[in-house]
Amino acid sequence: MKRLSFLLILCLCLSLIAACGKTENTPTDPPVKAPAKPPTEPSTEPPTEPPTEPSVETGIDPMGLVGTWEFAYTEIEGEIVEDGSATITIYGDDAENLVITYRDHLFPDESFTEKALILDMRPMYYGCGNEEWVMDVDYIGAIGNTHYAITLMEDGTLCIQNRFTIEDMPMVSYQWFTRNE
Fold it and tell me: Does the structure show a pLDDT above 70 at 24?
C-alpha cells in the first residue's frame, strides 16, 4: 500500500511537471478563502465577552497558530489540486514551545504527531503574505528528503510548504488550510 501511494504521488508530480513545464517555487494564486457561513438565528443566551487576543507579553500564542486547521487545497509546481483531506492541530503556550500534529487522511504515511515547531525570522518565500517569519517543523517526511515549513498568511490562512525530491529533482508543494471554528 505504501509503494502504491508513493507511486501515485510520483506519477501525479511527474505528469504535472510534464504538462506545464513550469518549475517556479512560489505559489501563483492567492489562497482560496473559505465560503462565508450562512447567517444564523439570534441566540436567546446572554452575550458572553469576546475572547481576548493573545499577546507577546502573556506568552500565549503570539503567532496566532494555536488551534485546529482544515485542508483547503494543494498547489504543486503552480497547479491547484483540490483533492485532499488533512487536519493540523497546533498547541503550546508560547512561540518557543509550539507543537504540531499533521493528519493526512488520504496518505496516512505522511502524517506525524507532536513535532516541535522552530521559529525562523525569514519569509517562507519572497512575496508571500507573511515575510516576517516561518516555523520549520522538526521532522523529515516519510518519503524522505521532505522538509516542512509553515506560516500564517495575512488573510488568516495557514500555508505548509513541502520541499522534496523525486528522482533527484527538487520539487515544492504548498498546502493551504483554514481555521476550523
Answer: no
3-class state of residue 180 by DSSP: coil
Q: Which of 117, 63, 70, 66 is CA-nearest to residue 91?
A: 66
Per-residue pLDDT tens over the stretch 28-85: 544 444 444 444 454 455 554 444 433 333 345 667 899 999 999 998 878 888 878 8
Residue 126 has what pLDDT? 86
- Domain extents for the chain? 2-23+56-179
Cell of 44: 436567546
More confident position, 162 or 17: 162
Question: What's the rounded Cα separation, in Å, for the pair 26 and 149?
Answer: 14
What is the per-residue pLDDT for 9?
58
**What separation, in Å, do the N-terminal and C-terminal C-alpha atoms of the chain show?**
34
CA distance 152 to 65: 7
89: which 3 cell numbers?
492541530
Going by the DSSP 8-state scheme, the letter that residue 110 receives in this structure is G
**Does domain 2-23+56-179 sit in CATH 3.30.9?**
no
CB 137 within 8 A of CB 124: no
Q: Do the Cβ atoms of 84 and 71 come closer than 8 Å?
A: yes
CB atoms within 10 A of CB 58: 12
